Amino acid sequence: MQHEFVIEQVEPDQENEFFKKLGGQFLILWPWLIASIVVCVALSYLYLKYQTPEYRIRASILIQDDKNSTANVGILEEFGLLKGTSSVDNEAEIFKSYALMKDVVVNNQLFIKYYYSGQLKATELYLNRPITMRYVNPNSDSSINYGEYLVAFDAKDINKFTVTVLDKKYVGKFGEIVHLPTGDIIINTSDAFVKWRKEEPVTVFALPVNRSVAEYMSRLGVAIPNKQVSIISLSLKEIIPQKGEIILNSLINTYLQANVNDANQIADSTIRFIDDRLQLVFKELSGIEKDIEGFKKENRLTDITEQSRLLLENTSDYSKQLTEKEVQLAVIEALEEFLISSKNETRVVPSSLVMQDPVFISLIQRYNEVQLVRDKMLMSTTETHPSVQTINEQLLNLRGELLSSIASVKRGVQIGVNELRKRTGAIESQVSKVPGKERIWLDFSRQQAIKQELYLFLLKKREETAISKSSTLANARVIDAAKADDFPFKPNRKSFLLLGFVLGLAIPFAFYYIKELLNSKVSSSKDIKNYTSAPILAEIGHNGNDEEVVALAARSLISEQFRSLRTNVKFLMANEDEKVILITSSMGGEGKSFLSINLAATLALTDKKVILLELDLRKPRITDILKLRRIGISNYLVDSNANWKELLQFYGADNKFDILSSGPLPPNPAELLMLPKMSALVKTLKEHYDYVVIDSAPVGLVTDAEVLAVLADVTLYVVRHAFTHKQQINWLNKLYLKKTLPKLNIIINDVQLKKSGYSYEGYGYAYGYGLYGEKNS
What we know:
Shape: rod-shaped
CATH superfamily of the largest domain: P-loop containing nucleotide triphosphate hydrolases
Number of strands: 21
CATH class of the largest domain: Alpha Beta
Strand order of the largest sheet: 14-21-20-15-19-16-18-17
Number of domains: 4
Strand content: 15-25%
């Protein structure tokens, strides 16, 4: 069996191929990469420049577990409401409460904001605001008390301003009431007004209080960083650092004051109770003193007799004891009335003042502790919450126990009063023997002494309670006052600039990837290999010159590629009788005529006789390219007397190779090519020439190339880079598998490295068997 020279492709290393392709893409895209990075980073910088920075303000507070707070937690745990929690958790929830934040918003007028409108954005003003606004008598319809107020200043009179609201203008003076449809307001100047440019107006936004409270609650962060210590970390997000520090410090101070107020509720209740009793006793004492004064004037008495003085001295001890018991009984009755009254159900019970019964004192302390826990829970929940309902039931039970204890104590005190009254009865019988006027005066004196003793006792207890209240401290201590971070946390400058750089880097590659994904044209040899197993014989680069014929004598890349193609073709045509080369393609414009001319010229450089047949009779290009006469093969095939030698034309000064042009366009090119005269002509030319190069019509459009295939020894199928459709390679593969075209090899034409990052693949050449025939066993 005869051996054949064939070409074996040596596939490049896949990893090297990947890096070569990546490097090629980078070489193509690097100007776009630089431009994209510059644009994206610049846009990121502009975004950061006009973005309002946001700072985080931090503070920390220590919760001191005093006896009261510990008792409160114990009570809740006894109810089964706070299992596993601590007083720190409770206080953290209070910091998150709506009521606490509402006090801060209202006290600091945070629902009113001031803005200065610049060219690109509005900037909020706080410490540097030139004015302050407040409502005097808000409209009853609270929904219209809020809105936008544009305050413009009078350049001529610094005491005047114009406020625009609801598209109407109103003139006013600083410090005076301005009547507006949204309510009466007063606008005052601040310290920053002196430096403010009067031509710049200020926009004032008044927001609903509940909306402002919700806004600041969403910005507030409350955390317990370590469960082992009683420290709460507070944070607040704010665009103005100084404002954030003021708000967070105000929140802490409001919390501390509320804590003190809770601790002072019992003292306040006791003081109110004592004040009520003082008014009553003072009124009674004043009445008695007036009666004594009137009695003395009427009877002209200046002093009592010696007998009366002795009686008073004898009864002083009993009177003092009786007075104390009566005072205690009065306090008990007042406490009983306090507990029975429904309006006092949610108030703490005043201290027992004079009652020393340990059970009763314990009940009062327990009742007040539960009441304070209930008040704290209501700061973060509602009356209908199950926990609150449970506490209400407990308070009801404790109130019943208190009333029972009071009744028991009251009976004991009443017995003591009755006993003292009996003992004083004997002395009073002696008093009855005293003359009538002195006896009446003695009775007045005794009542006066009792009321004075009670009044002095109440005054003493009030002072003791007031002193105790003034010494009350909050069960918390500020560790770190509010302080803003040095740099804003939002937007993150480094992250945005890095994002701009990454986007600038990714956009060109993404664009290239999408472009390649949507690209239906052949962009590399890999695209061809994905669709066909036909071998790739050579790759011809882009011809940058206008000349269709390459200067093959030069040492350019494209001339070297044609020399390589010539070598490969010689390997394919190893047998001496193989001389005919058929060149075709899928469609017009793929460069088969260009390839035919330059391959013929390259073969002629080796001192071989070469003839080029222009057999694309439908759309001949070689005649126009080489400016040939329009006589040729069509004339020869239709004229039985024509001589092909007379139709020959030549290319080059030294007649490098011969050419038979297509001649006039025939109406039936396929039928002409099927004439026996055509096959006879090719047979004759093989006898006279070393190589016969046939430029055929595209095989994907007409059957001319298939007709000529029987005359050819080798087929070169031209695929143009970035021009031939990938789907057309399927048609090529069918021809290859059916062996319709002899020894079909692919030529990739017009490869443009700078356009697409295409990299040439290396081919090794070796001898082998059986690519187009049977293997030699």
